[in-house]
Amino acid sequence: MASTQQTNQRLGRIGIWSLELRYGDRAAALAAAAELDQLGFGALWIPGGVGGDLLGDVVALLSATRRATIATGILNIWKHTPRDVAQWWRQLPADSQRRVLLGLGVSHSTLIGEAYRKPLAAMREFLDALGREGVPADSLCLAALGPKMLELSRDRTAGAHPYLVIPEHSAVARKVLGPGKLLAPEQGVILESDPARARELGRAALTHYRSMPNYMNSWRRLGFTADDVTSLSDRLVDGLFAWGGVDQVAARVNAHLAAGADHVCLQVISGAKGGSFATLLPVWRQLAAALL
User: Fold this and answer.
1) DSSP secondary structure letters along 114-179
2) Which of 27, 41, 73, 78 shows its CA 20 to 30 Å from the CA of 18?
């Protein structure tokens, strides 16, 4: 079983978080994953909040890459059973197990409906069941925003994968996690120097999230006002997204690292729909040249 330190080393400092690697054209996604691996990104993160064959998609990305960790951000605990996850895990070759990080999350009551129950208790039960089935804690992390979920990620997994946060959250999270635990925040990136266009893209990316209590509460804990959240203010957009050129992205990455993050996974917001790898790949190449 890998240690948390080994997990951190495998991830490296910079990864890519991408909807397109899971939902874009499959052949193009696998070719892009192979290039991202060759460019030197330490981890490729894919979403799983709506369920589906997330674990099969992880296997496909493992097959397309040689070194990068394939991480889930997130595996929705309401959409999978611990037994199914554990059976899948046991069937992986050992070298593939070493390259998987399962980020688990409790999703949102507005999406799950009546089946949703106390998230901390549900996550503890899911972790208990995975442990009984032999899935190692150091191959798991939690999508943790608030202090209680951060504490659970510290005590029961390799660490935390916060989403839609600012560097100040990384400082708060590191204080809760303590030394040695993984902290891998997602950071939205918009390579656009025009403020109006950059903020337009940021607001479009946030529209889906602003009605979800988990995120609203997180932003308010970080000092954003109810008006910031309701209006998707410039202050909120500028806080959550690194926009401008690669220098601005590098500064934001460095701010997370200085605040205590081990690994920052970059999600490029382009405004393109349908998994436009023609748009994304040039940006990923720029980020690799600047950051790796």
Assistant:
1) GG---HHHHHHHHHHHHHHTT--GGGEEE---SHHHHHHHHHHSSEE---S--HHHHHHHHHHH-T
2) 78
Does residue 110 carry a pLDDT above 70?
no
Domain hosting 161: range is: 4-291
Residues 92 and 62: their CA atoms lie apart, in Å, by 10
Contact 44, 75 (CB under 8 A): no
CA distance 38 to 247: 23
Query: Which has the minimum average pLDDT: 29-33, 142-146, 165-169, 204-208?
Result: 204-208
The per-residue pLDDT for 208 is 87
- What would the two tokens of residue 192 be? 């656009």
DSSP string, 15-27: EEE-SHHHHS-HH
CATH of the domain at 270: 3.20.20.30
Is it the case that residue 1 has pLDDT exceeding 50? no
